[in-house]
């Protein structure tokens, strides 16, 4: 399996956009230890925003969020938070955000929620909640923060 990971080095982003190579990358992320994949995941994170919108790349990023190391998840969430509101409004990219909200630690969940609340349209979570695709992401934000407790400041301010 290691030789396969070696073959993808320098080509991970292109492979993530391909219908069958993306599935090989998904299996690598699921099966290989994190340290073996560090270079591949770093390469994917540099193109994270573009891969979110891609029909195949979004699944690779979801596998990184599900099976990657804590450092991989943190770096990916930081990249996603740059344009979280636009990602939430896209039918494919929104699945990556929802996956991040389900699989990441509270610190990363809060970072994404704050990025969504600071929507460039000025409507915040309330406005995103009325969008046909973003509403599913907002629903996940609500679920995550209700689990934390009923008096979460982010929910009180934004919803």
TrEMBL record:
GO biological process, one term: post-transcriptional regulation of gene expression
GO MF term set: mRNA binding
Classification via SUPFAM superfamilies: ARM repeat (SSF48371)
Keywords: Repeat
All copies of domain PUM-HD, residue ranges: 1-159
Name of the molecule in the record: PUM-HD domain-containing protein
InterPro entries referenced in this protein's UniProt entry, alphabetically: ARM-like, ARM-type_fold, PUM-HD, Pumilio_RNA-bd_rpt
UniProt keyword Glycosyltransferase present: no
Database matches in PROSITE patterns: PUM (PS50302), PUM_HD (PS50303)
GO cellular component assignments: cytoplasm
Segments passing through the bilayer: none
Source species, domain of life: Eukaryota
Pumilio repeats: 43-78
């Amino acid at each position: 399996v290691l030789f396969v990971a070696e073959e993808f080095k320098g080509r991970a982003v292109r492979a993530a956009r391909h219908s069958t190579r993306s599935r090989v990358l998904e299996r690598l992320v699921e099966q290989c230890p994190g340290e073996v994949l560090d270079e591949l995941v770093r390469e994917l994170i540099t193109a994270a925003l573009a891969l979110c919108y891609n029909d195949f790349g979004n699944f690779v990023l979801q596998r990184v969020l599900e099976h990657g190391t804590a450092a991989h998840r943190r770096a990916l969430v930081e990249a996603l938070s740059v344009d979280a509101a636009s990602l939430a409004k896209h039918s494919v990219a929104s699945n990556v955000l929802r996956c991040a909200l389900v699989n990441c630690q509270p610190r990363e969940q809060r970072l994404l929620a704050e990025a969504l609340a600071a929507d460039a349209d000025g409507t915040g979570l309330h406005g995103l909640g009325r969008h046909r695709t973003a509403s599913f992401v907002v629903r996940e934000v609500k679920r995550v923060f209700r689990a934390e407790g009923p008096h979460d400041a982010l929910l009180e301010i934004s919803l």
